[in-house]
């Protein structure tokens, strides 16, 4: 019989140390757009990461930081805890978590991403609206 105080939640492993949280905070808050992804923008190492890079480039985002989660297992697991989002890639705009590939694709298709990027001063709004 399992004591009530030792439920499943008691055994959840914490992946995000204070120093790693600080490192992620610095990347997220110090850049207009950050993508935690597999690979980097020059050489994405999965289709979802490639799609996010292509969407940002189509939107006219010239400068964005990428963090290769494959280079550091602590970052790969820590970013999931940081954002409370289970998948990679993860996109942050002006310090706020936006989502992963599917969300970014939906926002791109609806025009919501262009609007958000323009509101944040990252790109100029399209003239054909």
UniProtKB/TrEMBL annotation:
The residue ranges of the Glutaredoxin domain are 33-98
The record ties this protein, via Gene3D superfamilies, to: Glutaredoxin
Pfam families the record matches: Glutaredoxin
Q: Which CDD domains would you find in this protein's record?
A: GRX_PICOT_like
Going by the UniProt record, its keywords in alphabetical order are: 2Fe-2S, Iron, Iron-sulfur, Metal-binding, Redox-active center
Q: Where is the signal peptide?
A: none
NCBIfam families annotated for this entry? Grx4 family monothiol glutaredoxin
Q: Which family does it belong to?
A: Belongs to the glutaredoxin family. Monothiol subfamily.
Quote the protein name from its UniProt record.
Answer: Glutaredoxin
Q: Which organism is it from?
A: Polyrhizophydium stewartii
């Amino acid at each position: 019989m399992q004591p009530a105080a030792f439920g499943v939640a008691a055994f959840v492993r914490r992946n995000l140390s204070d120093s790693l949280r600080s490192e992620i905070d610095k990347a997220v808050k110090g850049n207009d757009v950050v993508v935690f992804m597999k690979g980097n923008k020059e050489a994405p190492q999965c289709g979802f990461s490639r799609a996010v890079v292509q969407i940002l480039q189509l939107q006219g985002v010239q400068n964005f930081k990428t963090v290769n989660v494959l280079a550091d297992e602590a970052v790969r697991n820590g970013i999931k805890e940081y954002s409370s989002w289970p998948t990679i890639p993860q996109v942050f705009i002006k310090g706020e978590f936006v989502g992963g590939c599917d969300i970014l694709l939906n926002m791109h298709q609806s025009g919501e991403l262009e609007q958000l990027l323009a509101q944040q001063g990252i790109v100029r709004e399209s003239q054909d609206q």
